[in-house]
Each structure stands twice: as C-alpha cells, then as structure tokens.
Design goal:
- The structure is a homodimer.
- Chain A is 39% helix and 16% strand.
- Chain A is α/β, with parallel strands linked by helices.
- Chain A folds into two domains: 29-114, Rossmann fold; 139-272, Rossmann fold.
- The longest helix of chain A has 21 residues, at 6-26.
- Chain A binds chain B through residues 106, 122-133, 135, 156-157, 165, 167, 171-172, 174-175, 178-180, 185-192, 194-196, 201, and chain B through 106, 122-133, 135, 156-157, 165, 167, 171-172, 174-175, 178-180, 185-192, 194-197, 201.
Chain lengths: 292, 292
C-alpha cells in the first residue's frame, strides 16, 4: 500500500511554481496576483482562505484578501465582483463558499469573468472542461488529476467509481475521468444518494473517488483488493481528546480500508492541499493568459 | 415489450407547439424563427436540415435555410454567424455538422451567441446544463429525456449505462441522467472504446443508451431482461434490396434485443425525430426568452 502524500506533493508543486514565477519576475513580467473574497466569519471558510493566502506566499504570488462582514449585501458583492473583473492588477480571484444565505451563490458565480475564474466554477469554464476545450478546471478534481499523474497511477480502461454528484467535485470528476487522455479514459460510474446498490458498485471499482460528505462512508467491505482510493471528504467529528474538541475524518474508513489498497490518500494532508495547489496552477495560467 | 414510437411522439409534440405558437401569434406575438446553416453538399446533412425545415412548418415556425457551397471559408462563416447573432428577426439558429475539413468547428461553435444556440453545443449552455442551471439542452439527449418522460419510464435509482462519450450525445446524456430530478437520479455508467468489459457492464443496466456509432453493437446477450433500450445510432449499411442501395440500422441488434426489453426505440423513427423535436422546443424557448 502506498500512502499518497498530498501535502508533500502540493509543497513540491508550489516550489516548482515558485521557480517559474521567480524566472518570470526576473524577466520583467508581473508577479501572478490572486484575490480571495471572504464574506462573514465561518471559521472553516476563514481557515481555507488563510491556507490559500499562505500558498500564494509559498508560490511567490501576490495575494489580496478581501474580508467583508456577514451583512454584506448581494448588490455590494456584485459591485465588488465588477471591480475585480475590471482590475487589471488581479489575474484571478475566488469567492469563498458557502456564502451567507441572503446571497444567491449561483447568481454571484455567473458574474465572475470566466477569464479570472480560477476556481473553475463558472458554467463557461465548466462547459469548456466538459467538452475537452482549454478551461480553468475546478480545483479539487484538478488536484486529484495532478495526484494521479504524479504517482503515475494507471487510469486507461480502469473502472472509476465516483461517490457523490456535487457540482464542485463528483460531477466534474466523473466527466474528467471519462475524457480522452491521461489521466482519464476510465469507465466511470457516478453513484449518489439515490443509488440502491452502492456497495456492490463500489466493489467493482479499480479507482474509488469518495466525495459524499459522510464520515467513514466507504468501508473495507466495499473496496476491492488493490484499489486506488481517493478521499475527498473533510468531516469534523467530535473528539474530546483534542484541544479543539473535534478532529477531521474523511469519507473513507481509512484504518480498515488502507490495507486493501494499492494507493490511498489520507485525511487531512491528502486531497485538501492538492486543491489549494490546483488553485495556484490556475492562477499561474491566468497570469500567463494560457486559457483565454 | 413496448415499442417507443419516436416519430408519433415527435408529431404529437410538434402539434402541441403549433397550438401554442398559433395562440402566441393571435396574441400579436412574433412567430418563432429558426435559421439553419448548411455548408457543402453532404447528402446526409442535407436530409437532416430538410427535416428540420419541415418540422418548423409543422410547428408553425418561420424558417430560413442558408446554403453555402463547400468552398465557403471559415472567415466567411464567422461573418455569417455574426450577422445571425445580430439579426433580431432570428430567435435561434443551427450550423449543421459536420463542417468541411478546412473549417474549425470548435472555433465556429464558440462564435454562436449562447442565447441563439438552440443546438445546445456552446460550452456556456453545456456548462449550465451540467450545473443544473437553465440552458438550451443538446438536442439528442433532450429528445431522449422527453421520450422517457412521455412514456413515464421510471429512472429514479435505476442504473443507466451510456455507451459512447461524444460531446453531442454520450457525454451530456450521462450528465443529464445523473442529475437531480426526473428524468434523472440514475446511477450512471459511461462506457466507451477504452472500456474492457462493456458486455458485463451493459448487462447490469436497467436503462441502456447506445450512442457508439457501430451497427448492431448491442446484442441480446448484453441486455438484461426487462431493460429499457434507447438506440441513438443511425448507421448506413449496404443493402442491395433497397432502391438507394443502403438501409439504416441502429447501434442495437433490434430483432434479437427487442423481445428482452420493457421498452425499446426503433431505428429509424425512434430517437431521430425526437432530436428534431427537441430543437423545436429549444427554438420556442428562445423566442420566449425562457433561458436567458
């Protein structure tokens, strides 16, 4: 069993990006610049955004954190987005989700200029991705592709089962794993809350990608010997033995599943850091006008 | 076994549209107007476009066929598309595929105003469709959804296997069958040329959608008793007994598969007419500004 070191791999990639950025800057080019918009004070969101800002530093990017309180209105946010779209200093930006309930996230995401949409959430990027055209790939699926590639995991003709159908992970992941090329060319099954026989289907998988948001959902009985297991879940469960009173577990029962796997990602330090890393890759591409 | 009468159903829907259009016109509204661009003289393309024009008549739409010879350049086509985008008389238009080799179809399709993209091929429509936002759905998958709905075929929790991963059928079909809602909520597997064990996977399917472009690819051994089989294939095979010297067969070995099915579509007169019908539905939506 090989434990996929997402944190270490992300660090390596950030260093590679930093070298490229240093070279760009020494050649007189502008330093890539990512902005992040955070509305309200959800502690998980704050921690995600802080991570992203830290990764910008590691990658040699300029970053701007735009924090507004939870009462910031939809109109004000729309105006802020227009400013970011028109700010030639900023190569790409993200609006950290979830947004407060009084803001319609779908509506807001449509306002982001696809050229600066480094989260890959705008439907134009989503459609281009799905049609195999150059696009900003959604960060989590893109990070997983990087991981498969760097660990030279075979995907051609393999059966990949994606658990969960969110627009952020499961849905785009299933599209990317079925596309022509590497990583890809998989037979892909997407299962979700309406699937009757999840266990039976997951047992057929050469590659399992779990993104259903249920702690330890994937048990050892569900996994074939030698499978590759990618765990996207980040679930907080109560744990009185920790200072914070909780700990993070994935969607996979890691302890019991790991011994059966050829490759598996841990939680934390698996997919999470790769997601941030994919965001940095998109930002670099935006600054080099590689997609549009 | 119930034979799905695509031709009859399409006719019914066109009549429903006609009634709505007659009412719109008698209320002083503009008659929906579809334009079709045909480059070159591919006989199959000409026959498809002629069919679409005929369906416009049935639906009470105005139609304009714009025919250019095979030497029409990419630049000229780009200019024509700009004119169509700006022509407020035209609600929607299609550019009949395939285009001659000297024209980059991907590039051309990106020029179509998504608001008039009634084929649903533009990545913005594709992405909106994939994210569950209002969109012009690609015509063939949309026609198949109509068929499932009108025949009240259960899809919730069913295992749908889509054979083929084209951007026009297999890929969007797999996305739509997995989406929340009806028809949808399926467990979906997409198989294709790189899949090792297609037979074994198709045998698990409650619903088979064959769009691989290989005559009689789906045999009776591959189909579970009671399955729903939707045949998207339109393959010309030589047949000396016909006047034209060929006949049309689907991707399904109809004769041997049909007895095992709960529902099956014939070829011709199955999916084909429903595709044209879906195009009319999109054009009506465009004229009513229902999507954008």
């Amino acid at each position: 069993m090989i434990l996929i070191d997402g944190a270490g791999l992300a660090e390596d990639i950030l260093q590679e990006i930093r070298q490229e950025v240093d070279l760009m800057v020494s050649n007189g080019k502008k330093r890539p610049h990512l902005a992040a918009v955070l509305i309200g004070d959800n502690p998980a969101s704050l921690s995600y955004v802080t991570n992203k800002v830290k990764s910008c530093e590691t990658a040699g990017f300029k970053s701007t954190l735009i924090k507004r309180d939870g009462n910031f209105s939809e109109n004000e946010l729309a105006q802020l987005i227009e400013e970011l779209n028109n700010d030639s200093e900023i190569d790409g930006y993200i609006v950290q989700l979830p947004l407060p309930r009084h803001i319609d996230a779908d509506k807001i995401l449509l306002l982001i200029d696809p050229k600066k949409d480094v989260d890959g959430f705008h439907p134009l990027n989503f459609g281009r991705m799905a049609q195999g055209l150059p696009a900003f790939l959604p960060a989590t699926p893109s990070g997983i592709l990087q991981m498969l590639e760097r660990y030279k995991i075979e995907t051609d003709g393999k059966h990949c089962v994606v658990i969960g159908r969110s627009n952020i992970v499961g849905n785009p992941m299933s599209i990317l794993m079925a596309r022509k090329g590497y990583p890809g060319n998989c037979t892909v099954t997407i299962v979700h809350s309406r699937t009757h026989n999840i266990d039976e289907i997951v047992r057929q998988a050469d590659i399992v990608i779990a993104a259903i948001g249920i702690p330890k959902f994937v048990t050892s009985e569900m996994v074939k010997d030698g499978a590759v297991v990618i765990d996207v879940g980040i679930n907080r469960i109560a744990d009185t033995s920790t200072k914070s009173g909780f700990r993070l577990v994935g969607d996979v029962d890691f302890e019991n599943v790991a011994p059966k796997c050829s490759f598996i990602t841990p939680v934390p330090k698996g997919v999470g850091p790769m997601t941030v890393c994919a965001l940095m890759i998109n930002t670099l591409k935006a600054s080099k006008s590689e997609i549009y």
